[in-house]
Write a structure and sequence with these properties.
With about 200 residues, the protein is an alpha/beta fold. It contains 7 helices and 8 strands; from the N terminus they run βαββαβαααβαβαββ. The chain is about 35% helix and about 15% strand. Strands 4-5-6-1-7-8 form a 6-stranded mixed sheet, sandwiched between helices.
Length: about 200
């Protein structure tokens, strides 16, 4: 996948979509084959190096948000940076909060937010380290139609603005149609690699 492409992966439940995403994200180890990110064979790395590489180069967005309930919006977003013993880029943080329409909510806890707002925090957390690759597993699965549209629009905007490659799993054909390319997974195999849009 070229840098900055927004790809949707579709397929029946149990077809292997999440397994594929987890292998790309180095959360699951493939039984055979290789995974390359920026020309690096990620599973040839030592575990410690892989952990650091994943933290710095891959952003994850999950259906269930996975926010830390005791942390504010801002703290949840910058958490991956602090985990890497770095200082957050305050200018970039402000930009993200504005893009995600969360500036006024920065000191709120997840329990004080709607589902759509929580998912936007999760997107901010995935973007804060400026990863080359963002993996989104059903990012709109718990959202209504309006919030789903907003989340997809934000992902597309990030893909374009920050030249990040986004791979998204979705059950929704309508949401998949918004991607640059659609991949089809059937019974554990990629059966259609889709066509790149002009």
């Amino acid at each position: 996948m070229p840098k900055g492409e927004f790809v949707a992966i579709v397929g029946e439940s149990g077809s292997g979509k999440s397994t594929l995403l987890n292998m790309i994200g180095a959360l699951d180890v493939p039984s055979f084959g290789k995974v390359y990110i920026d020309s690096k064979d990620i599973f040839a790395m030592k575990e410690r190096n892989l952990t650091v590489f994943r933290r710095r180069n891959i952003g994850f967005i999950f259906q269930s948000f996975n926010l830390i309930p005791e942390l504010t919006v801002e703290q949840n977003i910058i958490f991956p940076v602090l985990l890497d013993y770095q200082k957050p880029d305050r200018k970039y943080l402000e930009e993200l909060l504005a893009v995600l329409n969360l500036t006024e909510r920065r000191r709120h806890l997840p329990s004080q937010l709607s589902g759509g707002q929580q998912q936007r925090v999760a997107i901010g957390r995935a973007l804060i380290t400026r990863p080359a690759l963002i993996l989104a597993d059903e990012p709109t699965g718990n959202l209504d139609t309006q919030n789903s549209r907003e989340v997809i629009a934000l992902l597309k905007k990030a893909s374009r603005k920050y030249e990040q490659t986004i791979i998204m799993i979705t059950h929704s054909r309508g949401i998949a149609q918004t991607a640059d390319r659609i991949l089809q997974v059937s019974d554990g195999e990629l059966t259609d690699f889709g066509r790149c849009r002009e």
